Amino acid sequence: MAILQIRQAIRDAMKEEMLRDERVFLMGEEVGHYNGAYKASEGLLEQFGPKRVIDTPIVETGFSGVGIGAAMCGLRPIIEFMTFNFSAVAFDQIMNNAAKIRHMTNGQFGVPIVFRGPNAAAHMLGSTHSQAFEPYYAHIPGLKVIAVATPYDAKGLLKSAIRDDNPVIFLESELMYSVKGEVPDEEYTIPIGKADIKREGKHVTVVTWGQGVPVSLKTAELAAKEGIEVEVIDLRTLRPMDIETVITSVKKTNRAVVLFHDWPYGGVGCEVIAQIQELAFDHLDAPVLRECYEDVPFPYADNLEQLVLPTPEKGLAAVKKVLYRG
Amino acid sequence: MAILQIRQAIRDAMKEEMLRDERVFLMGEEVGHYNGAYKASEGLLEQFGPKRVIDTPIVETGFSGVGIGAAMCGLRPIIEFMTFNFSAVAFDQIMNNAAKIRHMTNGQFGVPIVFRGPNAAAHMLGSTHSQAFEPYYAHIPGLKVIAVATPYDAKGLLKSAIRDDNPVIFLESELMYSVKGEVPDEEYTIPIGKADIKREGKHVTVVTWGQGVPVSLKTAELAAKEGIEVEVIDLRTLRPMDIETVITSVKKTNRAVVLFHDWPYGGVGCEVIAQIQELAFDHLDAPVLRECYEDVPFPYADNLEQLVLPTPEKGLAAVKKVLYRG
Amino acid sequence: MTAAGPTEVSYEDQLKAAFKDQSKDDILRDYLAMLRIRRFEEAAARAYTRGKISGFLHLYIGQEAIAVATQQAIQPQDRVVSAYRTHGFALALGSDPKACAAELFGKAAGLVGGIGGSMHFFDKAHQLWGGYAIIGNHIPVAAGHAFASKYTGDGAVTLVFMGDGAVGIGPVHEGMTLAGIWKLPIVFVVENNQYSMGTPLSRTLPVEDITSRAAGYGFKSDRFHVTSVAETRDRIGAAVKRAREDNQPTLLELITYRFRGHSMSDPAKYRQKEEVETWRMQDPLERTLRALQLLHGFDEAALEQLDGEVIAEVDAAYEFADKAPPPLPEARFANILVGE
Amino acid sequence: MTAAGPTEVSYEDQLKAAFKDQSKDDILRDYLAMLRIRRFEEAAARAYTRGKISGFLHLYIGQEAIAVATQQAIQPQDRVVSAYRTHGFALALGSDPKACAAELFGKAAGLVGGIGGSMHFFDKAHQLWGGYAIIGNHIPVAAGHAFASKYTGDGAVTLVFMGDGAVGIGPVHEGMTLAGIWKLPIVFVVENNQYSMGTPLSRTLPVEDITSRAAGYGFKSDRFHVTSVAETRDRIGAAVKRAREDNQPTLLELITYRFRGHSMSDPAKYRQKEEVETWRMQDPLERTLRALQLLHGFDEAALEQLDGEVIAEVDAAYEFADKAPPPLPEARFANILVGE
Ligand SMILES: Cc1ncc(C[n+]2csc(CCOP(=O)(O)OP(=O)(O)O)c2C)c(N)n1
Ligand SMILES: Cc1ncc(C[n+]2csc(CCOP(=O)(O)OP(=O)(O)O)c2C)c(N)n1
Ligand SMILES: [Mg+2]
Ligand SMILES: [Mg+2]
User: Fold this and answer.
1) I want to staple C218 with a disulfide (CB 3.0 to 4.6 A). Which of A57, B142, C155, C180 is the partner?
2) Domain boundaries, chain A
3) What is the distance of C-alpha C72 from the center of its chain?
4) Nearest protein CA to atom 20 of ligand 1, as residue
């Protein structure tokens, strides 16, 4: 098995799918000549040429719409948002066209498209560039939403997303592009809609995704030092959500924390909580807690940004709280 | 006390505030010569002239941004979205400018603005015109979000919203503009951030807002016939949320249902659930359930639309379920 | 239209001149094609009033020549993308009037299964690619169809229609920008019917001539009053040819008029009777009818017979729609995601 | 810049001609104003490399003349609204370099309390109204400032700046559309520095001349190479006058060049050394320096003394920033909502 960075796993997934299927193309700002703002498309222009690796001007609504229109014609676009923060200006295209065209045409047209790019905060980019977009997209029927945290998951799930006949929102992280991990040399895919237990444990279930995964794993390490065995579930797919895996775990641990990189109000975190309290009510020994961004726009200053973020220490405090040990 | 429709209460609130404060103006599509697509601004152009009642072309991002820019100069714009469905194309202006300018300028500039208009589904308008926007806006720190269900609340809260120094999202309903109710003749305002108990009861708490209010009240009536006393809490303000009122009620009833007109995943409904299970964990005798839109894009056909909507009957079923009587 | 005065005379002469180069068969074909749309929509308006149709119903009455001309200007592989005022395109392109009426009635046999209603007519088999209800958001999508044509070499041209009220919104600008940079095989058509809802052009446009924008995108442009199918077809056709042969996008402004309110809920009080009457003189349907009378001797009886046939077809469509069953309850879960 | 050949001679002559109508004092003032910005940003680049500044840092090096000219063209009530390449505007408009440096360092004494960083410079007291980081979303906001001026009659003109990469995005079109319809007192300035990140104009623009869009909005326009503060001031000034006196918006395209990468993380490998060298000959700062030498006999020593003074001010600003305390932890909850 090769050791790859997440950015390379993403690049390889796109490359393999582009080799496999001529209908697949990549479009976005700086994806071609610049090799991607975060180098996730390194070498693809050279390999596939400007017909299939297309630099756009800064018109997120325009090129999202072009992707949707091309998908309706049978092509399979991958649309890169330089970051998902910039998808706010394309929100209508995703919510009203990508998500609804199959439905509103009664199945005459489909929109097999992937929107991908880094999501949520990076480091000291300020309030407009530090936002998580899963609460908006996961809310909408007609979309699938994925968030990845390892090279293995990134490659396997991106390949599935590209092959999927539905519109898929694929969330990466700027801060995690260099994270390394094993990736099989042979071809593989990971089914959309399956969570992954990243660490087993029996005392507390921590449900997480995306940037929350490494924080949760460190939380589990800290907890282990205090004799607490945390089970870390990486949802991987946020919509549709693999709630069975979560419930099975909670029925074992009887306690849960949801740890994620987004503001608290509503969103995916609350969906997890609502489902757990509904489906495992009699098994819960404590309320489900969330550990996430503070409910503030991101400040630029380093010291303030650190305070806003969820950390392993805060995760541990939440874990202890649901154990009534703190 | 006068009996007014909600649309008149809204009109009167705007009129009174425009009389009171020259900085207040109304801007949007068809708000002037046409008197508003749903006649919520009837007569205002005639009374205040085109300087203060401004018809715009169809450029939601453009006129939302103009409102924000004018507010930064000390004016107090009311921006009407013909429906909030069309705010999707202005999402970035609201999320990144309205909500963040005070923060990102370190308080040098404020954005005292109200975005108002009908929200969620009306009748047989299809998938793009039948969406609830509170999950998107209530998620964002820097905004206040209000949803009204009676003429009294509409007038009192809209006046407070116009006077508020922060950006406020004010959600009305096309289907409820003609709902009538008593409105005091003398001047009054209702504080933002206070829920209202629309009906008292002791067996089950139903938390609701907007179009959910009349459905919840009918649910309570049906329940009463079966000897179940439902307490109906109208949140009125979704952000900041008056969770105290909810928790006080749940501590009395020990059971709760959240009934609302939006898709289930995440959103305001799940926020309510997450808070209840956290703050009243030991008081809950059953999981908190949600009764809301089915998780599908809205179909046009009448029969299908009816199936998708929450109804008093479905509300009653949920109420009985949390009572383990069904 | 009854009083004969000096204007009336010159109107007739002008009409004769305008239609003299067309064959009787062609004029008759255009007349019937427009009439079918008009009668269909008049019936829709009645059905709406009777509560058989709900939601928003936007009628095309006055603009029919554009849809008919479009159908004549294109080839079978081409695509027509429209906003929400779409019944005319569907009928002109060959959609079954029964399926169209059933869609308005929200029935399973509707063009899109009763799921979309008036605003979301789609009929892939008849080149109709929408039916979009958010102003301007179909323009980038249509640019995407044209992009796909260039990608696959399918030789198709995409024609995308929008109202005068749509030209200010951002997505239109972005779609046009991309079409301009990438030289896509596309024709942008603004159907300038003088109003967006209750708002006249003067409050919507910074300058009167919408085609003044073409230069900024590197487009060719054309701008004219729609008074007959033939001229409209030829001028749309020239743009289609440029798109197909040279990948040269065109911005067309077609000046026209809608005789009804914006939708069924709009009484259109914002305009004067005189204005409407002036435009009636230019109504392509009315003009074509008069041409048949003046140039080809169609008398009242002949015209009534034609009308009767058209009305019979329309009535049958609405009868079908009325009797057709609604969608099955399960239909609301269909076509959201596939493959599950 | 050392080899003297035939081109060099004509370059000198051309320079002399260009600056001959300006007084020594004016040239010196412009030189120092530009130099201050350049030295400030060179210091910022060094601080970034040392890890004192983080996030995105977009330098204005090469474009300084525009900010300096803007300051000279406006009145105290006017507003300047920019995107995220803003240090130059702040310094030209009179912001305290200490506060600017402290902002980059994320310190409490920063221009916006360390909350915004490089992309969000705002300084209301010095007419700087942003500082926006989402491409194009400040254009409608700036139109809103101009709208407020018309509403209140405050007599202010709003000048809003954007990059060449911004002109395709929807909000720009919408803001311009409203300014055109409502005749707002505003000047739209495109700082065309040839690139948006790594993308040259040819992949961003459907036609080369950005001002070809002006007609569609009913704007006046002007387009020129920025080679000196004086000419730039006069041509911006003409647009400001039109805005103030006639409520006539103008679209200006200022052709310029950035000598650094897009941000500190961009090595700018996408352009050739020769290209950069050619543009260096047109760098307004360099030209103004040469004018001082050629026309007014400034020698190396005199210039070095001036430079030393500027550098001392800049160094003091960065020293201040380095020593200044970070924001208090509570600062993260401030200015989100007021009145609670
Ligand atoms: C983004 C958006 N804003 C507002 C509306 C509501 N709306 C529907 S049609 C219409 C008027 C459109 O006028 P025009 O483009 O001239 O087309 P016409 O109706 O004349 O064919 C408006 C404001 C919408 N559908 N989408
Ligand atoms: C909506 C949006 N999309 C993408 C970006 C990322 N981005 C920031 S600057 C930039 C290039 C802008 O180029 P230009 O407008 O020419 O300005 P310059 O940097 O040359 O001053 C891009 C793509 C953004 N900030 N906002
Ligand atoms: Mg129109
Ligand atoms: Mg640039």
Assistant:
1) C180
2) 2-183, 196-322
3) 13
4) C196
Give the minimum alpha-carbon distance from D296 to chain A in angstroms, rounded to a whole number. 45
Residue the block writes with tokens 């350049």: D38
In the CATH hierarchy, which top-level class contains the domain A196-322? alpha beta
pTM over 0.95: yes
* Per-residue pLDDT tens digits for A228-265: 999 999 999 999 999 999 999 999 999 999 999 999 99
To test the ligand 1 pocket, which listed residue (C119, C135, C256, C262) has its Cβ within 8 A of the most ligand atoms? C135
Q: What is the mean pLDDT of chain B?
A: 98
B167–D contact, CB cutoff 8 A: no
- pLDDT above 60 (res C213): yes
Please give the C-alpha separations between residue B81 and each of B137, B240, D182, in angstroms, as whole numbers.
Answer: 14, 22, 20
Asked if ipTM goes beyond 0.85, one says yes
Distance between Cα C167 and ligand 1 center (Å): 10
Q: What does the block give as tokens for B67?
A: 């409102």
Tell me which fold the domain D8-324 belongs to.
Rossmann fold (3.40.50)
Same fold, B2-183 and B196-322: yes
Any chains having at least 3 CB pairs less than 8 A from chain B are: A, C, D
The CATH number that domain A2-183 falls under is 3.40.50.970
CA separation for the pair A303, D312 (Å, rounded)? 29
pLDDT in tens, D3-53: 445 555 688 899 999 999 999 999 999 999 999 999 999 999 999 999 999
Distances (CA, A) of D306 to D22, D31, D97: 20, 10, 17
Q: Is residue D189 in contact with ligand 2, taking CB distance under 6 Å?
A: no
Mapping DSSP onto H, E and C, the string for A148-174 reads CCCHHHHHHHHHHHHHCCCCEEEEECH
Q: What is the DSSP letter of A94?
A: I
What is the number of the ligand closest to the CA of A60?
2
Does the beta carbon of C138 sit less than 6 angstroms from any atom of ligand 1? no
Indicate the burial class of B227 (C-beta count within 10 angstroms; 0-12, 13-18, 19 or more): exposed
Model pLDDT, residue D38 = 98
Note the Cα C175 to chain centre separation in Å. Answer: 21
Query: Which chains would you list as touching A if contact means 3+ CB atom pairs under 8 Å?
Result: B, C, D
**C224 vs C235: CA distance, rounded Å:** 9
Handedness of CA D143, D146, D151, D152 (dihedral sign): positive
